[in-house]
Give the backbone structure.
Amino acid sequence: MITIQGISKEFKEGIAGKRVMALEGLNLEIKRGEVFGFLGPNGAGKSTTIKILMNLIYSDTGKAEIGGKDVRNPESRKIVGYLPENPYFYDYLTADELLWFGGKTAGMVSKTIRTRSDFLINKVDLQNARKRPLRTYSKGMFQRAGLALALIHDPDVVILDEPMSGLDPIGRKMVGDLLIELKGEGKTIFFSSHILNDIERFSDRAGIIIGGKLRLVDTLSNLLSDGKNLEEVFMREVAISEKGTSL
Amino acid sequence: MTLWPVALITFKEGIRNKALYGITLIALMLFGATALIATMIPREVGKVSIDMALSTISFTGLLLVFFVGINLIAKDLDKRTIYTVLSRPISRSQYIFGKFLGMSLLIIVTMSALSVMAMSAIVLLKATHAEYFGRFSWSLITLAILFNMLMLILLSAISFFFASFTTSSFITLVLTIITYIIGHSISGVKALVESSPQEIGITVSPVTLKMVKAAYYLFPNLSLFDIKLQAAHALTVTSSFVMWTVVYGLVYIALAITLAALIFRKKEFP
């Protein structure tokens, strides 16, 4: 469902234009109906990968496809729902208007948008705030409105960049429940996190990315097969990447 | 059809912006001032009231473009609201064209509302000082308002062009203001340097002459759209002038917005 082949991305930083390799030869295949957790420390390349998938930035080499369509083709996003890290929306729009926008751009008719909006607004518990301007929302409410927007067109693929970051326990539970529900519906989910527990709870398969390089990809059961927990596996990979030696 | 959702949220975001209340308040105060000042110049009440009312529309229109309009695109980039839009199945060009459509709609609606206020002020003064409104033409006043709208839409298109490659809203604002100032005065400056400036004690070097000519062809000639004087004095405006000015405005808008879309295709949002 999601294919990433040999993707590399270099950024130039500062006035001197110092080159920083954000992604190096990334290969990844995510199957239909799979929940894939993308784990890595801050600045590892998780968001860069997601932004390439959403065509917000362009890869220097390689290609990426969603549902068999090149990510540079806007049509590829018809089956994708995306929640950015720390989403920010238009100040003076309401959640209802945001969802109308999301539905219309995905080609939905107004009646279906209304029905789907009612369902999602209830799901993310924004019934009392749906007519309020988004600028009055708290961080958690932003995140929930963003989730509703990502799901308005009932996408087959859901891409979430740090969906739990900065949420209170209630918000975390709500997002967690939603992930489980989406998984039950057979959606393909690609989510990034640096929270080990989230990856362990929700993923079928996980990838560990450090310093722009994918260090490890496997099913959760294989990763944790030696009785190790994910933290140990992750720290081992961090140590290998930093020192070039195993602990 | 894909443009419409982007255009509508842009329009809604703009029309609900609190800065718009401030701009409307300034306009109301200036229209009040028009009524007061015009009556202080008894024989010229007609000309002064039309000139001041149209100037108020121009001034508040500029405030709208500089402080509401530019933010509508620049804030998308500054605050990354653009992720919300570009993650939908729309292309970069559709985003730019949709955004521009929304901005144009905002200018047309706001300017229409301000024009109603301006015309009300003129109607009021005309009713109380009918004898000083001898040479008077509603069609010229309407034309002046429409030309002003076209100029503001052109200025917005230019702000889109700047926003497509600059990194902050402040730079876009500064470049747009500079373009407005040059665009408004370049035709006069060109006429001066090409005539006989030495007669009035000004020496123009060949380099300056070339620079002024280059600026004349590069920057939009915004003074073309300013027919306040003709409206105030009910002077004749030929239909060919109207037609060519509209064509000039539309071509310039199309060029600026197409260039913005082309540059925007390459832009990345890390």
Observations:
- Chain A has one domain: 33-61+72-243.
